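REQUEST
  id: r-88c1
  op: predict_structure
  target: Malic enzyme
  payload:
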Amino acid sequence: MSSNRKSEKNPKFGHLPLSTSGPQETSLTGNALLRTPYFNKGSAFTKEERETFKLHGLLPTNIQTLDEQVKRAYAQYSSRPNNLAKNTFMTSLKEQNEVLYYKLILDHLKEMFPVIYTPTEGDAIADYSKLFRRPEGCFLNIGDADRVEDDINQWGNPEDIDLIVVSDGEQILGIGDQGVGAILISVAKLVIYTLCAGIHPSRTLPVVLDCGTDNEKLLGDDLYLGQPRKRVRGEEYDAFIDKFVTACRKRYPRAYLHFEDFGLNNARRILDKYTPQIACFNDDVQGTGCVTLAAIMAAFKVSGTKWDEARFVMFGSGSAGTGIADQIKDAISQHTDKSKEEAGQQIWCVDKPGLLLKGKKGQLTPAQIPYARDDKDWESKEHGDLLSVIKEVKPHVLIGTSTKSGAFTEDVVREMAKHVDRPVIFPLSNPTRLHEAKPQDLYDWTDGKVLVATGSPFDPVKHDGKEYDISECNNSVTFPGIGLGAVLSRTRLMTSAMLVAAVQALASEAPIVKETGSGLLPDVEDVREISVKIARNVIKKAVEQELAQEKDIPRNDADLEEWIREQMWNAEYRPLKLIEEHNADAHARGEAGIASGQREARFEH
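RESPONSE
  id: r-88c1
  status: 200
  body:
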């Protein structure tokens, strides 16, 4: 949008606190303004702004557009020798000018996504202590648990924070325990929220819980910035988590809490504990499940498979596998009259020992136990390998989260295709070298009948003269929209019904459903508009379940979508309005998103 249009308030929703129409107020001038990333426009400050905000002499004379700045920044980015250097360049740019940072990414989204997020962000996290320049985010130390509340409080007043992403760093992006470096995954996740759903970047808080590390390389590194001690577990760990959640709830009672990259033994357990208490989400458990479920819904619309008859085999039953199973179980229950327990009987989970059985309860995680089958039902049947299970179950859907490369063999796939007309097969393990099967093989082995989604990007495949797009189950088309709906509705909880509603919105946007292509999921380049649809469904369900705390939420879809869009942050320069310091809130004083020792003093007077 142009600056002229932005100077006018949205006639319907411009009065909202998160409105993106009209000018931004600030009390800053001169260098203080240039040093504030969410106000700084660099060479794009207008002639009038340079006069009003005392910027003459601080900037080169020529006034440039945002597009011209993006062109220059992209040339600088492109000159960096490798992806890690590009990632570091982007971090530096973000610290100088947030609008330019996000606009550059949005203009080159597919190219830059792997650089600012996985897999390159994993390299940056692994080298966090070596690359460290300046801190970003909130660092909470289990050795100083008594300070948690004070440390959380300094990030703002109750109305200043909408979204908190927290990690304890035990299981980062497939590279394991990275200790305090996990602050970067919290930061990166919040960048995705802003890019994909317009969450206001200055109203978010990235947190790392430094509980030690079991990474021997880090423990032996003199430059390591975290606690050089073995990871704390048990009662002390649980008490620390509880102090953190309690402090967040007390200080920011309407903020949405996102758990990220916790260890296998903690992720699900922590989520289950706090889901009935606060609006929270775990992307590793729920996000993967949601995007996979959306692809299944799209596939079923094509295949005609009925939810009350569908049979599912999960190959790999860790946090991702059981998380997907949970989402499928919720969907079956909502599409049929079955209880969740009955719905779970349509899902068979396979892990390293073979089919999960109740007799192996001592070897099962809490998340696996609900899916364990009765031993007596399998006494005379082979169940120690995937092919045997496929022969017995005859599934409509086969999903892989095993990290076992090539596990979906030709025999397995052909056996499955014998029994169903349109087999749905999702090899989701990351990275690409760990995929259970290659899409081209799946098409060849099923004579083109397969419906495929993968965990990593793949080029289109050709079979029998036709070309088929391969959809990536990318969580980034799902969790940002869910978060946007939670933030704007101020929902008290995030329920399974809200997640299914989100999934339905995503599935309805699939090219194969809209008959605009063969993909089971929409492209990440369309993600902001997809996030609007997902947020709409989440908000409507929050209102229906009487969980929404926001007032005057529009009831009809057209108004609700405009209401959502008006509150989504955009990567564009808005006019600035100079105000007196005594009239300025924390954001106007340049204190949003950073700890400020002066904030509390000001508000006490």
